[in-house]
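Q: Predict the assembly, please.
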Amino acid sequence: MKHILTIAGSDSCAGAGIQADLKTISALGAYGLSVITAVTAQNTRGVTGVQEIKPEIIRAQLEAVFADVRVDAVKIGMLGSSATIQVVAAFLRDLMADKLQDVPVNYETGRLPLVLDPVMVAKSGDRLLEDEAVNSLINDLLPMAMVLTPNLPEAQTLLGSTIKDPAEMAEAGKKLVEMGPKWVVVKGGHLPGEPIDLVVGPDEVYELPGRRVAGHNNHGTGCTYSSAIATYLALGHPVSEAIRKAKGYVEASLVNGFSIGHGVGVLDHFTGVRSAMK
Ligand SMILES: Nc1ncnc2c1ncn2[C@@H]1O[C@H](COP(=O)(O)OP(=O)(O)OP(=O)(O)O)[C@@H](O)[C@H]1O
Ligand SMILES: [Mg+2]
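A: Predicted assembly structure:
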């Protein structure tokens, strides 16, 4: 059994955040561990409150997990503030310096399989990262990421420039790779038309086509995508294959998405599992 750690925020309506990550990891056949960075009060209509977890408790959660359990891949989602970014980055630096555990190293990239989803704004439009924390994200975490998965607005914020079409997404992806991550997936869900993602790796730039699933049951697509990539990496897939399979999983979960409240509905993370059990 592979063990995937998600470092992210809690979503009380469980469509995104830690809850979406754990469902994704479980549905794909691995075991999910969670380090909670913030608790959000949230429903399908929006975010109504955020309580950050104290840095020492975040560090304690990380130490507890790594002191006992082998971790095969890590996904990072909502961090919220520079204090949280710094405690997570410092812990991962210690980890890689081999002080805490023999970390698994991905054979293709020579790095810990670490998928960084640079969460900044919820689908509802609520901000999930302090403005002044963007520089910490760039300086402290981007250089450690194996795969970075910004959506269009996040790529624009990280680069300070606008992105309007696939050609500009490719340029943005190349510039982001120069900032440290080995691979960057610029997600095209926010552009009109089919949701084409732009993938940039050490030796490749390509478009990953997708089919747009109509409707509003799409809360948590970003969290689901990044934790699926981390899980497929831990299961041993090459990076490009892990990204492709994760996109297929998001699409399949969107197809059977459903409404649970009065706003944006959620994905059906267990579509495949349920049909396999019949
Ligand atoms: N309606 C859709 N149909 C099919 N695929 C989609 C749709 N919307 C997004 N995707 C895909 O889902 C993945 C996640 O991308 P998205 O752009 O939604 O991330 P995000 O903006 O970070 O999401 P979130 O708001 O949940 O954080 C990408 O592969 C994207 O192309
Ligand atoms: Mg997102």
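The chain has a mean pLDDT of 93. The two ends are 23 Å apart (CA to CA).
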